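retry 2 of 3: previous attempt timed out while embedding magnesium ion. Reduced batch size to 1 and resubmitted. Inputs unchanged:
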Amino acid sequence: MFDFDNTERTNLEEIGEFGLIDYISKAVELNEKSTIKGIGDDAAVLDFEGKRTLVSTDLLLEGIHFDLRYVPLKHLGYKAVQVNLSDIYAMNGIASQITFSIGLSSRFPLEAVEEIYQGALIACKKYHVDLVGGDTSASAQGLVISVTSIGYADADTIVYRNGAQEGDLLCVSGDLGAAYMGLQLLEREKKIYLENPSVQPDLEGKDYIVERQLKPEARKDIIELFAKLAVKPTAMMDVSDGLASEILHICKQSDKGCRLYEEKIPLDQMTYDTGREFGIDPTVAALNGGEDYELLFTVAQSDHDKIKNQPDISIIGYITPASEGCEMISKSGNVYPITAQGWNAFKKKN
Ligand code: ADP
Ligand code: MG
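retry 2 succeeded.
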């Protein structure tokens, strides 16, 4: 097992790739029935007993997706797993395994790898997922993490992006925009710190939005709620790039339009207050911010009674014919076309 109190700095060259893999594999437990073989051979072996298999992968690059000046490595490992599991839940599936790959530049010692895996393994344990493999490499510059998650579902329970029907209710879990506000706060504190390293970061009373940015939780509970309520969404995806962009994906793939009501978009009070402080409209944060990892989905009107009193689900609009376009009704009653200005992987960072 890892020695998490290790305060040394062990050069990875000393233990080598196979030493590192061996080290990682000793920290990994296998608990899932569907895992036949984990780390140690050329491939993991899984058995889903007749279910459909779901696979999703994500790549996280230092300087593009995360900034180690304010992201602790343990949180990074945790988040890397969460954002990936979120994609399996977005298919209405159960995540059961991940592979976890790392590229490390020479500035990372063994202890840094320990911290990353510590966070990753906490997420695995909490969500009942086995870590069954990965790949390890040196990187010319910075840290690279890639996670692949694997899950399963019965063929008739899988929910795609393209199933929204006219008249369906447009719904979202939890609240939106908080992770973006958390990012603004962390960026501000980073700037202050870079100008004057003796100033301690001031994150007092902002735990919720900082946590939403650094330590998101994939909404497995919502998938379990669907099963309990006997609701099968007609279309679904997770909110990683901002509500606007995700709504447009569902509408485009379903060949439909929609009406979204600004006043129905769920916002936490802290998102709202921090938005005022920073001069950022919280609706804009929800529409274009991203990294919420909530579930956006559509349900048939006949399911309205089943979901209307669920505290963690908001009905934010409805699906229309494609010819009516994708529109938002603002709080003041004006109609705006929904446009995606969310995260763009090839946008230049400032
Ligand atoms: P190969 O050269 O066949 O790809 P590797 O030596 O890369 O094999 O991997 C050997 C075993 O260790 C495999 O089971 C692989 O999934 C696992 N593994 C390699 N790197 C990692 C890692 N960073 N985390 C977890 N498992 C890993
Ligand atoms: Mg390999």
